[in-house]
Structure formats: structure tokens, C-alpha cells
Design goal:
translocase; three-stranded antiparallel β-sheet; binds iron/sulfur cluster; NADH-quinone oxidoreductase subunit I; alpha+beta
Length: 240
């Protein structure tokens, strides 16, 4: 009668790795001494003629894709302090301070308006995990990726970039990739074009009115004081 441990010890040799058996080694590597060296040299000579995938950084800067996630840049003028980026950041490494200012009512009428003024915008790159969520959620394109990556510091506290430094990164953001030929304009451009067309039409209308008024004054006819208003009193003045 055999115990359970004896049964296990009998089974172990059958389940052991087959490669540990010297009889099962590949015949070629046993038969020819120095075969491994020959194989290694063959690999060396083969790769010597190929293009190297490494670069001699920092003497040779790497060619990075244009949308590389190097550092986050801020365009302060576009930021409305909506706080979306700070709320969505999974690491809570965006710090924003602001205050409200009251803008006076416009001269033509209306009411006073309040607006947010950005006091502080900082990103702690020692906590940031470069997920890009803040850039995705910003509704005003105030945040962008820059491919710059050379901002390592000896002091970890220096990795807290305030808004002036984040602004400097913005000048290194590459231009957007051109649209495919035949692609429709982005909706922002269509909207801007609509506004520009409206302004041009209003400007042309104003020029036509000014020309008409100038022609009327030259011919001694009364000037129009408003749309559809050229009263007899004005005509009397012009005749006089
Ligand atoms: S990239 Fe991600 S972790 Fe870094 S600041 Fe933006 S949201 Fe936060
Ligand atoms: S989401 Fe954009 S606009 Fe809003 S606070 Fe962040 S950077 Fe500013």
C-alpha cells in the first residue's frame, strides 16, 4: 500500500520539464562546439547593415509625432474659468483661482455684467498622468498638447508649472493637421464665416447709405435723417 506522498513523488518525474533531459537537447548545438558563437556573429552581421532604431539623444533630437503628449500648454485668453478641466482631472493636479469682476453697462443700454478673471492656473506635472482628459473637456480650446518633453527637474516642486510657464509652452504647439481635401469646414469656421458675411453686408449697406446721402447733398436735395424719413421741412431748408 502506498501513501499519498509516495504517489506524488512517483508522478513528479513524468510531469517535469522535458528540456532538462540532456538526451533531449537539440543535436546541432551539442555536435558543433562554438555553434552559439557563430549564430551570434551571424545576427550581429545581419543587423549591422540595417538602420538603427535608436538615436544619439541628446546630440540628436528624436523625431516625435506632432501630437506627442509632452507637456500641457495653456492659452490664457481662451480660458473662461469654467473649471471643467479641474473637475474632470482624475489626479486633481490642476489648480485654478479666480475672482469676479463687474463690467459696466454698454453705452447704448443694457445692464452690468460679471465675468470671471483668472488669477492662477497651475498644473502639477509630478502628479499628472498625461491622460489628456483636461484637454478633451475644455470647451474653449484653452489647453493643448505640446510635444516638448525636456522639463525634468532636480527638485520635484519645480514640476508645478504656473500659468506663465504654461503659456510659454503654447508657442511650441504644432499647427493643426490640414483637413482632407473635400472635407466640410469645421463648424467653428462656418460660424465665423457667417458672422463675417453679416458684418460685410452691414458695412456695404452703410456705405451705400453714405453715398446716397452724399449725392443728395451735392445735388441740393435734403439729406435723409433716417430710413424712409425725408420730411418737407428738410426740403425747405435745402431749398433755402
Ligand atoms: S492630463 Fe490628465 S492627469 Fe494630467 S492634468 Fe490633464 S486631466 Fe489631469
Ligand atoms: S476647461 Fe478650459 S476654459 Fe474651463 S477652466 Fe479649464 S482651461 Fe479654462
Amino acid at each position: 500500500m502506498t501513501t499519498e506522498s509516495e504517489q506524488q513523488s512517483e508522478q513528479q518525474p513524468q510531469t517535469g520539464p522535458a528540456s532538462s533531459d540532456p538526451q533531449r537537447e537539440p543535436r546541432a548545438s551539442r555536435d558543433f562546439p562554438g555553434m552559439g558563437l557563430v549564430k551570434g556573429l551571424a545576427t550581429t552581421f545581419k543587423t549591422m547593415t540595417k538602420h538603427a532604431h535608436t538615436v544619439q539623444y541628446p546630440d540628436q533630437p528624436p523625431e516625435l509625432p506632432p501630437r506627442t503628449r509632452g507637456v500641457i500648454a495653456l492659452l490664457e485668453e481662451n480660458c473662461t474659468v469654467c473649471m471643467l478641466c479641474a473637475r474632470e482631472c482624475p489626479d486633481w493636479c490642476i489648480y485654478i483661482d479666480s475672482h469676479k469682476e463687474t463690467a459696466p453697462a454698454p453705452p447704448g443700454g443694457g445692464r452690468e455684467r460679471t465675468r470671471n478673471v483668472l488669477d492662477r492656473f497651475a498644473i502639477d506635472f509630478s502628479l499628472c498622468m498625461y491622460c489628456g482628459i483636461c484637454i478633451e473637456v475644455c470647451p474653449f480650446d484653452a489647453l493643448e498638447w505640446s510635444p516638448e518633453f525636456e522639463y525634468a527637474e532636480f527638485d520635484i516642486k519645480e514640476l508645478l508649472h504656473e500659468k506663465d510657464r504654461l503659456r510659454e509652452w503654447f508657442w511650441t504647439v504644432p499647427a493643426p493637421v490640414a483637413l482632407d481635401p473635400g472635407a466640410p469646414d469645421p463648424k467653428e469656421m462656418a460660424q465665423a464665416q457667417k458672422v463675417a458675411d453679416k458684418r460685410l453686408t452691414a458695412q456695404k449697406a452703410a456705405e451705400i447709405v453714405a453715398l446716397a446721402d452724399g449725392g443728395a447733398a451735392a445735388s441740393g436735395q435734403p439729406e435723409r435723417s433716417g430710413p424712409g424719413r425725408s420730411g418737407p421741412a428738410g426740403g425747405a431748408e435745402g431749398d433755402g
